[in-house]
Amino acid sequence: MKHIFLETHNIKNPFTGFGQYNFYLLKGLHHCNDHEIKFTVHTQKKDFLKEEFGDFFNYKFYMGLRRYPSLRIRKKYSLWHSVNQNTKVEPYHDLPYVLTIHDVNFIEEISNDLTHPRNLRFIEKLNRANAITYISEYAKTSTHKYFNVPNVPEYVIYNGNPSEAALDLSNYTPENNIKEKYLFTIGDFWERKNFHLLVQMMPFLKDFKLIIAGNNDRPYAEKVRTVITQLDLEGRVTLAGRITDEEKQYHLKNATAFVFPSLREGFGLPPIEAMRFGTPVFLANTTSLPEIGGKAAFYWNNFKPEDMASEVIRGLGEFEANKEVYTQRLIEQAASFNWNTAAKQYLEVYRSLI
């Protein structure tokens, strides 16, 4: 029996991309049910995970001080998987180490000085890795652009779709129940999400409303609220805050279109969730998003609000004129991303090292 440690501390934030990735990777590994491996999961949410997975996983929680060399985890696992590129805890011993890289946005958003503590911690993880996995080709390319990547096996393993299983919404009424045509988006309220551009686009789309869901308690949300007020759009733009899975799937299915003008994405889970329901998707033509949307999505080539609105009108017209073809294309694109497939690929990486 091999014992693998999964450094999954970001599962404590279930409404973020990291949190979704951590949780659904565990679901995939649970589904694969490899009898030769016992996993230990690093988490603060032991009760929640135990209710979901029972005793399939062992559960441990360590304080962040365990990232420092003298306090690192001394148990000798067969393999350590740093599921998130950011550091919470690290192993004391030299043992097979897999690093998953989601993005290197921090090099642009925090500091491009390679001696900055954030970058030094990442470089340390790179240098101790025996294998590196990336969630997109873009994540791999951008890592090589900014950092000296060691000569170890590298793999691109795409994420799956958190909304692959459709919920029963037959008797469900959402809190934000809009009868008119509306656009929908969801995500962390970071500047790079470009939600304010969607608000600036709305004066050119007078027949539509807009729902923006996500943890709008971050400072960037104030910028979005200010733009809403300046453009007198309080009646047409809703900041929904954190929403339930039921409400998310309702809007992914019933919105006229899903809109996602993010400036930097290592992968981008919400677009494939929308495509799963055959909903037209409009994405920024940047970073990993063309990988995710493929030929099924429509793309903005610039961020001028009037041009963005024109593309929405043009794309929706094209979608309606070829609805059956486009709907099938969207559903097939979403189906190409599967957590069980991803988990099998990670298991292959583990076996290659142990």
How would you state the average pLDDT, rounded? 93
Spatial sequence of strands, sheet with the most strands: 3-2-1-4-5-6-7
What kind of assembly state do the chains in view correspond to?
Answer: single chain
How far from one another are the termini?
Answer: 11 Å
The structural class is alpha/beta
Cα-atom radius of gyration: 21 Å
Q: Order of SSEs, N→C?
A: EHEHEEEHHEHEEHEHEHEHEHEHHH
Portion of residues in beta strands equals 15-25%
The largest β sheet comes out as:
7 strands, parallel
Shape: globular
Low-confidence stretches: none
Total beta-strand segments? 13
**Number of helices, where a helix is a run of at least 4 consecutive DSSP H or I residues:** 13
User: Helix amount, in percent?
Assistant: 25-40%
Characterise the protein shown here.
Helix 6 (about 195-200) runs parallel beside helix 7 (about 220-230), helix 6 (about 195-200) crosses helix 11 (about 305-320) and helix 9 (about 270-275) packs across helix 12 (about 325-335). It is globular, with a radius of gyration of 21 Å. The chain has 13 helices and 13 strands. It is an alpha/beta fold and about 350 residues long. It has helices spanning about 15-30, 45-55, 105-110, 115-130, 135-145, 195-200, 220-230, 245-255, 270-275, 290-295, 305-320, 325-335, 340-354, and strands at about 1-5, 35-40, 55-60, 80, 95-100, 130-135, 155, 180-185, 210-215, 235-240, 255-260, 280-285, 300. It has a seven-stranded parallel β-sheet, with helices on both faces. Strands 10-9-8-11-12-13 form a six-stranded parallel β-sheet, with helices on both faces.
